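tool=predict chain=A
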Amino acid sequence: MQDIFLEYKTLFVFLHVISGVVWVGGMVAMRYAAHHSFLKIESPLKRLEHIAYALKRLFTIVVPFVVILLVTAIFMVKGYGLSQSDFAPLSYAKEAIWSVMFVNLMVMILRRNRGERMLHEGNMVGAKNQIELIGKVMVPLNIVLGVIAIFLGTYLSGTL
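tool=predict ok
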């Protein structure tokens, strides 16, 4: 694994960085650009439908990059020998952050799907309860965690 990493190191690092950028950047765009546009939609039903659709599109785009992020992280940890280095605690912290973000993402996807199903059933209150938490808490949490993980990755790459 280390030989493969060393041969394609630039590609692995690029894919890792671009995956983090797409994931975190997509959430920033959704929360701070699209979200405010959705609030301008007067019909609560139409607003929830548009939010559910946009989240579905975001998650469809982001999930493959999350997989790439995971695979490249494994190659980088093994390739740089981080587990046996002085940087192991930082590496583990970064892995833990991305893991929490991943679990949060999976819960967001489940909540979005449940909210969309409730919309189709005519349960607006239930749909709002499912979807609202995503924009108010879950996405901002992943943005903060993602920025911290990107900072840790930048620090690690600058010292290796």
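Residues 2-154 form one domain. The chain is about 90% helix and 0% strand.
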